Predict the 3D structure of the following.
Amino acid sequence: MALHTKKLYYRRGGTTYSIDLYTTTAEVGSEYVALRDGSTTVYAKIDAVGSANESHLRIRKSGVTKSVLSTMTAQELSALINYDISNSSSYPGSGTALTDIGEAPAMNATLYNGVGYSSEKGGVLTFDGIDDHVNVPYNSVMNAPAFTVSVWFYVPTMIGFTQWRIINRQNDGNWGRNSWGYEIARADYMGVGTSSEIVAFCHSNANVTPSVNCIGPTKISINTWYHGGFTSNGSTLNIYLNGELDNSVAGVGIADDTTWPIYMGGQVYSNLFYFSGRIGQAKFFNTVLTPAQILQEFNATKARFGL
């Protein structure tokens, strides 16, 4: 969301309260009050009295009393693929069927080798780091030349090997070609730290080798939930962590000439890099989200994960 750099403040009963202001009406919809900050018009969201996040302030619009909201609740963006483990329509808490609740066509997945379930955070999948994984069968709509991957993940222990694949799409023959992935690795393995540190990285490559990686400099803490993801438009690869851009690289090419599935939890074809941790939600967009949209995705779901 495009928040204005300033807030509207008011006093009531000796306490100061604030109202978030937004820079465009696209952020607040059709129900808003417009204000001026110098030469700039800004907007505060209004809604029915009793709405969530309402302030003490009221205005009259078309003969109806409305509440001025102190802030807006960020809304999740619709994705081509959406596996939300907290939603029983996506996963009921048992079995091997994982249902895509994103846009049509539905791309339902299968859990293999005993992927577990925990009710924490509303519901998450647990991976043992040995052979657990999720398989999303190939569909031609996955071959988007520009796309975004988003995933909530939790790392309960230090990586003992080199790296763990959280979500990836990689072929079974030519290493690194026509592939993409979001992974975490020991910082020393990636050349950006020590063996006791973890970093996230991603790749998205055309039919070339070696692999082009985008490494996030921010260190990953164990026993912490993170919102990770990346965008690729064929020329630039951006990696995000908790809604913020963490790094960017160029020259990645377009990974769109494949018939391979998407995997969660490991590099399945070579039986390597199995993830020991938890996944709460995974989404795939067949477009490049803007930084503001990435932040919106994070804000819309962070409360569930304690952030």
Q: What stands out?
A: The first strand starts at residue 8 and ends at 12. The chain has a mean pLDDT of 90. The chain has two helices and 22 strands. The helical segments are 187-190, 291-301.
